[in-house]
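Translate structure to sequence.
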């Protein structure tokens, strides 16, 4: 009887730990959980970003820290599962918006800024909000800027592995 009681306590403790830690093989992330994922992002067949060789990416489900399609893909996964998901622009960074591009006179920049293609600047819009823009072209008299995300309008392919779920409160 003593051995059975010891086994019961050990199994019960293990089950409680699994429930509290969300480590069940069937558990899927839910709003408020923090997840850790490994990923590789390819755009047009070329690796654009990866977590390989680094710590897994950590984020909270439902906190709008990730693009919608990525979060939706992770919500349907189990720990240890790997999946590939292709996201159209509307589920990622949206379509390009040509209204977010402009050509400005070079004299509009402060004298201490040396404009170069790829340089990121903060620009204030007419409504007072601040937006990050990227310089896309420079001439002797003008600078072309773009306020779109670099991946706007692109179809993204992610290889995702769910590494861990930490249950929210």
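Result:
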């Amino acid at each position: 009887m003593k051995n059975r009681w010891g086994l019961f306590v050990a199994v019960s403790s293990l089950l409680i730990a699994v429930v509290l830690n969300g480590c069940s093989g069937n558990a899927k992330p839910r709003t408020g959980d923090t997840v850790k994922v490994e990923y590789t992002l390819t755009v047009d067949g070329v690796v654009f970003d990866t977590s390989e060789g680094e710590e897994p990416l950590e984020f909270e489900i439902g906190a709008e820290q990730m693009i919608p399609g990525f979060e939706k893909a992770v919500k349907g996964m189990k720990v240890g599962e790997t999946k590939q998901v292709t996201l159209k622009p509307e589920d990622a960074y949206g379509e390009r918006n040509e209204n977010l591009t402009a050509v400005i006179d070079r004299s509009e920049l402060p004298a201490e800024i040396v404009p170069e293609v790829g340089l990121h600047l903060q620009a204030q819009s007419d409504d007072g909000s601040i937006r990050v823009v990227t310089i896309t072209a420079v001439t002797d008299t003008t600078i072309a800027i773009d306020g779109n995300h670099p991946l706007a309008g692109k179809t993204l392919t992610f290889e995702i592995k769910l590494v861990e779920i930490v249950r929210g409160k």
